[in-house]
Every structure is written in C-alpha cells, then in structure tokens.
Amino acid sequence: MLRPEVALRIGARLSGRGIRAVLADEGQVLARSTGEGARAPGSVVRELSGLAPAPVRSVTFDISDPLLDAARRDADPVSVLRVLPRPAHTAALAGHPSPTLRSFVAHRAAVRGGHDLFGTALAPLDLPAAVEAAHGARELGLGAVAVIATGAVGAAGHERAVAEAVLEAVPELRVCLSHEVGGVGLLMRETAAVFNAVLLPAAGRLVDRCRRAAGSLPCWFATSDGGRVSAERLRALPVLGLEAKWAMTLLGAAALHGHHTAAIVARSDEVCTIGEVRDGLPQVAADLPGSLGVRLAAPQPVLTLVGRETFAAHRSRWLPGSPEIPAVFTDGDEDPATVGAACCPPTAWLDIVVHADTTDDMRRRQRDTEERARGMLALSGAAPGSERIAESTATALSYVRAGTYRLRVRATARAAT
Amino acid sequence: MNRPRLPEVLTVAELAHHGPLGRATMLAAAQPDGPVHHVALVSDLEQVGGCRPHTALVLHMPAAQGGWALESALRTAWERGAACVIGPAEATVNRSAVALAERLRIPLFIIDEDPAQYALDLAAAVAAPGAARAQLAARCAAAISEQSSLRGIVGVLNTELPGATVALVGEDGRLLAGRSAAVDGDVSVPVPDVDGRPWARLVARLGAPSASAEETVTTILRLARTQLAANAARPRLSLARRGAQERLLLDALLTDEPGNEAERQAQELGWQLAQNVIAVFVRPALGAPAVAPEVATAGVLAGWYEEFGDQPLVPHQDGWVSWFADTDARRVCAVLRRRLPKVRCALALTAGLGEPGDLRGSLHEAALAASVGVRGRPGTVEYFGALGPRVVLASLPQEQLGPAARSVLSGLLSAPDGEVLVQTLGAVLDCGGSTTRAAARLGVHRNTVSGRLERVRARGVDFDDPEHRLAIHVACFTLAGTGDAGRDAGA
Amino acid sequence: MSEVTIEDLPALAAGAHLLMSGAGQADIEGVLHWVSALLAEHGPVPLVRPDDVPEDTVCAAVGLVGSVTAQAELPMAGDEPERAVRALEARLGTQLGAVTVLDTATVNALLPVAAAALLGLPLVDCDGMGRVFPLIHQTSYALAGVPLTPLAAVGATGDTVVLDAADERAERLLRAAVNVSGGWLFTALYPTTTGTLPRAGIVGAVSRALAVGRALLDAADVDDIAVRLAAQTASRVLGTGRVVDLEHRTRPADAHYPAHPSSIVVRTHAQPVRSIRLEAQNELLLALVDGALAAAVPDVICLIDPHDGSVIDIEAVTVGREVQVVTVPAAPVWHTPQGLALVGPRAFGFPIRHPREGRVRHPGEVRS
C-alpha cells in the first residue's frame, strides 16, 4: 500500500542495562540497533536517526521491564491512606488481600470521608486526621502516600482535598491519588495508586534518561493499553506503562504482518501467549492481574497463556478462525515490541460510573465522556482531527438505583509526531 | 387434465409492489413470493403462536416491544409458516432481528402508521386481490404504451411484474428481448405479427408459481402483445424486403454485362464497386440448426447491421455477400474475426475473404475460402490468400464429386446415424488419426469417437489402408462440405 | 453434618459467581480474604442440614442486599453481620441458633459463612433462591409463607435499619435505604425456625454452589467444564461465539426493578451460524436462539470465557468478546406454577411462557 508520506519513528525498549530499538515506518522496519550501558540509549537513537532517509518524527520508549524490575527489587515502601465512612474493624479488611501489595505498604491509615457511587458524600472528610496520618508516614521515613477515597471514581473531591492538605503540611511527601488512574473498585484503585507511589522515583530516573537520549526528538512512553503518553504523564502515573511490553508486542506483531486486526500468538520455548489486535489497538481490559499478580484498575492487554503442545494440538480452540481475524505468529526474534513502540498511537481510556435518569441523559453523559477522551488525546501528540472513539460502552450496574451506568471509553488518534 | 382452480391469492411481493405493503419499509426481503391468505393483528406474542399459515402478521405494541420480542415473533411466525411480519415504527429493530428475518426467510416490514388501521387496509387488499391486480394492470398498460421498442416493452414487464422474469422469444427460439433466464418459463403467451401469423412468444418465469400469479402475469403479458407486434413489424418487414431486392441487384451485377440500370441502382444504394474491393462470403457454420431461409436472412441482416452498421450484406446462393473498399485483406480479416462472432442472430456464422480485386473475382475466392471456413468453429474467418495448400481442397469441384463420395461411403450413409459416422470419420482423418483431438473438435468424449470408429470399421470402411485413405478423406470432406453429413454430429 | 473450611472458600466463590446468572461479580477478593482470615481465627463453620438441629432452632437468612460493585467500591467495615443479627435478635426478643443463606450467589455465598464464624453459629445448608434474584421477596421462603420481616440491616456508614412491613413494601423500603447507604446493606431477614426450612428453603444450596465451583476450578478446559457442570446440575451449552451487539434499554424498564435492561447478541461460530440474544436486567433473564426461547429465568443463564473457563459478568461484556452461553436449571421449586409466577419470565416483564410451562399447541402447526 502506498502511504502519502513516510512517518519514520523510533521505537525502543529498555531492558536491564540494554536497549533494543528500531527505525520504522508503520510496520516497515528500516533499521535496527541495540546497545548496552548507560550511554547506549542516546547512541542508539542517534545511530538510527543518522540512518533515516527522512526526518524522524519521534521516539517512543517502552520502559515496562525496568519499571517491573524496580517494583520487584529496589522499591521503597509507601503509605496508604484510605478515605471511608468508617474504618475497618479487622486487619483483614483494613489491609489489601494481596501479599505482594502489602509488601509495598509500610504504613496505613483510614480517615472518615468518601462518596457513594452517585456522588453523594457518605461522611464529612476528616482532614486533620489525614494530615496526622501523613506526619506518621513521614516519621517512618516514607517518601510517598497513596490516597484512596471510596467513590472517588465519580467524585474526586475528597482525594484532592486530602492531597492539598497533606502537601501543605508535609511538602516533602509525594501524593498519588487513586482517581487519576480511574476504575471501579477500591482495592484495584488502591493497587494502581500504590504502584504509582512505589514507582515514582524509578519512573522519574527512567524518564529523565530517555529524554536525554531522545535529544531534540519528541519523546513518548508506551502504555499498557497499546498507546503512548507524554513524559510528564508517565512520570506521574508510572503504572500506565507497567504492562506496556505485551501491548507493544501485540501491536508490533500485527504491524509487521501488515494487519490492523489479527490474533497474535507469541511463541516462547514452552508457552504461547495469545492476544488480539483490533483496528490497530490491542484488546485490553481493566481489572486484570498483571505481571505482578495483583488486579489493577489500569487497562492491560487480554492475554491467554497456553502450553506450546496444547496449542499445537487444539489450535482452533484458541484462534477465532474467522477470515477477518487472521492469525499472526511471532517467535520474538524480530522483537515486535520495539516495532509496536515505533507505531503505537496516542490513546485515552476512561472507566467511570455515572447516573442518568433517561436514555437521552445517559447518551449525553456518554458523549461528554467521549469528548473528554478526545481531549486527553491531544496531550499524547494526536494529529488534530484524527481522533476516533475506538470503544464506548455503557453498562447498567446491577442491584443499584436504576440509571447507574459504568461508562468505558477508549479513544485513539493518528500520531502527529 | 382439469386443474382445480385455486382461490385468488396475492403474494407478499405483489402486496409490496401494488398493495398496502408498498407503504411499508422493507427490512428483510427474503422469500417475497409467499402467498398471503390471512392478516392478523397481534398485540400479545402468544397470539403469534396461534396464527394460521400464510398469515401476514401485523405487530402491535407490546408484541414488538424490545428486540427480543421482535425476534421471538419472527421465530414463531416462521414456525407457523406466516407470510410476513410487519412491525410498528416504535419497534426496536436491530441488526440481529433483520439478520434473523433473512435467515428464517421471513419478510420483515416496518410501518409508520397505526397498526390496527393498517391491518384493516391489508386485510381488504388480501380479500380482494382482483382490485390490486386491476390497479397493476392499469399501471402496466400505461407504462407499455409509452415504449417504442421491443426492449423497452419487455423492460417494463420485467420491472413491473413482481417476482417474475420475462423474455420475448422468436418462433425460431431466438431471444429477441428480456432475460434469458425466463426462456423456459412457466407462462407463455403467443405474440402474432401484424398479419396475425405466429411470430414470437412472451415467456415469463415465476418466482413462486401459483395459479393466481400465473393468471396475473398472463393478463399483463397479453396487454403487451399488440404494442410488441406493432413495434416488431416495421424493421423486420423492411429488412426482408430489402434483402430480396438487393439479392436480385447483386445477381444482375455479377453477370458478364450488367446493365446501366443495375449500376445506377447500386450507386443509389451507395455500393462502392468501381475500385478494388475485398469480398466476404458469409455462411452458416456446419451443424447450425436448420432455419427457413427468409427467416434466417432477416435475422442475419438485422444482426449484421447491428454490428457492422451500413456495411452492405446481400443474400447470395447459400450465404450472404459483403465487400469492403479496402486493399489490406489481413486488416479486414482481423476486423471480421473480432466482430463476426458478435453478430446477434440465431445462426452461427463463418466467412471467407477473397483477395482485393474486382467484385466478381474477389467473390469467387471468398466463396472458396468460405467453403473451408464452414468446417471450422462458429466465427471462423478464412482468407483465401492464407489458405496455403488448403486452396486445393477449397477448389475441389464439390458438386461433381458429391455422387462419387456418396457412393464410396454408401456403407456408412445407410446406417441410421450415417451422417454422424461420416463426420466423425472426417474429423479423425482431419486430426491425423488422433481420436483425442477429434473428440475435442466434435465436443464429445473420446470413448464415443472410438466407439463410432468401431462401427465405421464394422461397416467395411477400411480407412487404415494407405491406398484408400486419401480417397476416403476426400469423400468425407466433400460430403461435409455439401451438407450431406454435417448435422448434429456432436449431439 | 459437614463444615466449610478455608480450603472450600475458592470453590464456594467460583460456584457463587456462576449462580449470579451474569450479574456483576466485581472484585470479591477483599471479602474472600476477610472470610479466610475469620475461618483461620474461628475454625471451620459447621454446615448442617435443617434436620441436624432441633426444629425449634431460631434462624434467619443473612446476606448483602444491593450492589456487589458498590461493595467493591465501599468495602465492609467487618462488624456489620454481628450488628445486623444483634439488632434482629433485639427486635425478635430471642437469640438466633443458626444462620441460613439468602442466596448462594457471589458474596452472598461467603458472607453467611463470615456471619456464622463471627457469631459462633452453625450455617444451615439451604438458601432462598438457589441462585440470585433482584428482589428480596423472590425467595422460596416467601413462597412458603415465611414473613420477610422483621429484618435488620447495617451499612458501611454504620447506620442500622430495622423494618417491619409486608414483603413487597419491605423490598421497596429497604431498596430506598440501600440507595442512600452507599449501594449495599448487610441484612438479616426471614426470621423463622429450622423446622420450616425443609419445605421453605432450597435445601442443599450451599453444597450445590460448592459442587459447581469445584466443577469450574477442577476442569481442564471449557469442554471439561461443560461435562462436569452437566453432571452436577444438568446444565446445557447453548452455543459459543462472539458478542456482536450490546444494546441498552431495549425494553421498557419496570420501575420496581433496580437497574435498566440491556441486551447482548452473540453470533455463534459453529455452522449453522446462530444468533443468541440475551436479555439482561441485573442478571441474564432470557436466551433466544434465532428468536426461539432456549432458556429463561428462573434458570441460570451465564457466560463462560471459552479460553480460560472463567465466568464473565454482563458488566465485563464488550463487543467482540468470545463467550460460551450456558444455562443451569433452577431449583425444582421455581418450576412450579407458584414459583414461575414469582420469578418466571412474566415476573420480569416478558409476556411469554417459560419453556417448562410448555407451549400451547395450536391446530395445524406446520413446523416444529
């Protein structure tokens, strides 16, 4: 297919001390480069830029591997502050069910406050208690606090108020708010907020390193939903990039084979990892347990793991088998994740609860949410006018007031840079 | 045999075409040819289960409330053998309901009016099919009267008759207008020419044959007859007359001393005969069905003029003659090879070309080339100058050789399928003894050819004997060329 | 007599998920974690048949009324079961000798275990639904004439509600309280004696949920699930395919039912391709295969992920998702005329007969 213009981009994956990168025009790989050591990212980017027959538009880094390493190895524990109408009576309910997550939490407190799903306050916010908890965290030498208020997905006022008060009282403490990632479910948002808090220092270092390597090129970061965000956003919400590797692998494998929609089977020695790309975006879902085994509110690729032999014996069970969804196989030799990083588009994801009395009202809220998602794309370098809503669903919530909907909107656009 | 007369019944297609369903939006058009015997207004899904076969179901809220209800109604309608389902505008119609209607082959309509009133209108139309048909007949009559060509008239019939395809077929079986799919249709109405003699038939194939549909279609086909005959007569008559006149003129011109009068007439007709011309002799391919000469002439002339415009074509002996004011025979040959197969007529044509020269000389060569050409496939064009050694065969005095050839092959010709055997033998000898190639040329299986050869040998014709071989080959060639052994050999 | 141990909890949760009939499961890991901690602290909970205890033993059903999604957003404080039961006991003027189950779906299969552990009472192997229904008076208890009230309910805010009302009024009053309490209330209701349970309860419901859960967890793949589930519950697979449409408010909403109706359309893979339309309002209520009613409430209709065998909630369904549609027959009490009148398709606004009611045969049927 002839493209009106080439759009050369560099996709790069940091892993351990190494970097692998490609110079690509969509699925067309023009050059590859690898390097190792502290200076490698810069030289790899310069080398690929030098090989480019036309100006390189941008470089996108997938830093999911070093982020996961940071979470697994050298993470500093953080404090958790829940905002609830009543504190839990037992440790099992006060804490998080995941031992992994608990291992990151050195200090925990609950203060009165929070909203219901319809945005009504359940209890007045106890700000002095929040400030006191922040002092407690600081006294333990903790650098960050994750704030999770019930109902913040629909009404974030209490989280913001806590953040303001804490930052004023203890300015050296960094605050991560659960509603910034979004999603329904206090524990899943807590996971996301805690990961953000834990990863803040590592994310800051990695983002700085990548920006230096990018030099004058616009610099983006791959995310778990198959999109990319700005350096500032990834620095603040590193959890968004935590599972980027598989999202980029799916995207890249599809792009390498020239498909916009495909079922991807990534084969390793023993296991096949199967995912799907539809209309140029990996299929994702919120509330999946990711590489760290904890359910997360942020969207991640939907993956199925099958033993290689089982897959070979029952292929049809795992593949859609429809001609519109061709199967693409990759053995990882071509490093599809770097290609995915080179061609990932700006994306936006919103997962919120709204209340609407009439169908028209619900549609209006849905349109508003879609508008918000379009707006968010601009921050990720979307070409103006190219925004499209890839997915927009409204699901009625069970057993609550009629008219309570969960809205999920996914938007994407063509990258400008 | 007396066929019991069925009650008059309209089909869904008829109701959609010239009945109240015309006001409805058709969402799924599967199987529109089902008859509609009854109309039922349904406000409760369970009532759908009680409907009689061939009922048009008009759904009233709440029977159509929600996509599931419509799908459930469609399903039950299918189980009950309903004719169609008509939903109110408020019904939730979605892709899956439309897809289901198509899958179950239940026509689905949506109306934007009060279902109760609509059901009454529909019931009235179903109860009085005559009224709806009269309306259709009136509409067709008006549309037909505005047409001035065969195609136009048959086109109207194809557009207006619901669920039927229509063709106009000549007495010779040739498609004159309309759709070839209709040629063997269920309904056939003879169309006489202006003098009342048989000329053609209007044939219609019905999507869902039924006594009532047959009657409607027959009525409307009859309406079209007069207009068709009037439109057909003009060009046909003039062509036949023109052919006869020109044949006489050409015969006169080909005599040793054509008179001044003939030359003047030729000039009037625009025949350019003064300078060098390349003559073309057109003949029907061997094996073409026998057609009365005057019918064939009219058909061939019409087809020729359609393809070649003003290029003259004049009946002559057992074929037709044309000539091109050109000196490049190969160019003319190429033109003919491309366009002769496109001439639309009942006969498959072949042609021979003479060398450029005066008409008489060139025509003589063209006739010789044509005698080779007729043995080829339909559309074959032979150029005298390119015949090579075959010129010997072309120049054989076939008229004189005929009796001798018949005598040599009398053993074969006395067989019931003697002509077939002669043609098969000729083909095998033409193909150097290869039964495979001969079979391909004759369009039959190789085993058939082998079987026929066995019978040829059994009748004492020893074509393997080198001493007899050439004589037998020439005899076969002669008989094939004179048409004594050329008919339906491959059938 | 048997017991519910920590090891049983994952199977109980999995079985309870399937019996939701597609209603939102949300994240129950927090509740599972808490109940596990309680069993670790208090030991296994005795699971008794109604006739294992004296027939005049006072008991009440316990469970969450409201939204599990809301509960995932607003977790329990942990003292609600005790407070609700104490408030009910105070109103009754007597102490409970056992707890029983409102419905064995989602957290409501687990919370009675928590209540029994906290209160030191046995759990009666019996519930009032055998699955989940949206209204609290849609129970076998109510069908047998056991009064719904007095009931006591406690929410995350710590407010306590004690209600005395006729069954349907109680439903509406409690629903109003749920809506202002963060979306759920832990409730103790249907106070009665264990002697009435053999005729008023769906006996063996907890064991059944456990058996269903084990079938889901032990199966090797989705085909194995179908076999095991069919062996346990006479379930049927209606088809496997891809979700091609999601629609909302496809039917007029009944004001008495929380949440709005929606529809899911699945196109099956196997030839001939069929269209399975699922009608949902809270739960999946109807399944029509090419327009023909294949399954209907009160039978459980649920979606299973053909890749990993997990149960898919309506809320998680997206266009393009692969699903297997499975139906599990309801407890026999629901197939009686009285049962179908309370929870059959007509009770949910569908003017059609449940397949078990048989179809009226009309003279001259042309196709079957």
UniProtKB/TrEMBL annotation, chain A:
GO terms for molecular function: 5-oxoprolinase (ATP-hydrolyzing) activity. GO terms for cellular component: cytosol. GO terms for biological process: glutathione metabolic process. PANTHER family: 5-OXOPROLINASE RELATED, HYPOTHETICAL 5-OXOPROLINASE (EUROFUNG)-RELATED. This is Hydantoinase A/oxoprolinase domain-containing protein. It comes from Streptomyces violaceusniger. The lineage of its organism: Bacteria, Bacillati, Actinomycetota, Actinomycetes, Kitasatosporales.
From TrEMBL, chain B:
InterPro entries: CdaR-like_regulators (IPR051448), CdaR_GGDEF (IPR041522), PucR_C-HTH_dom (IPR025736), PucR_C-HTH_sf (IPR042070). Residues 259-372 form the CdaR GGDEF-like domain. Residues 421-476 form the PucR C-terminal helix-turn-helix domain. Gene3D superfamilies: PucR C-terminal helix-turn-helix domain. Pfam families: GGDEF_2 (PF17853), HTH_30 (PF13556). Coiled coil: none annotated. Belongs to the CdaR family. This is PucR family transcriptional regulator. It comes from Streptomyces violaceusniger.
From TrEMBL, chain C:
Pfam families: S-Me-THD_C (PF20906), S-Me-THD_N (PF06032). It comes from the Bacteria. Residues 7-164 form the S-Me-THD N-terminal domain. Residues 167-353 form the S-Me-THD-like C-terminal domain. This is DUF917 domain-containing protein. It comes from Streptomyces violaceusniger.
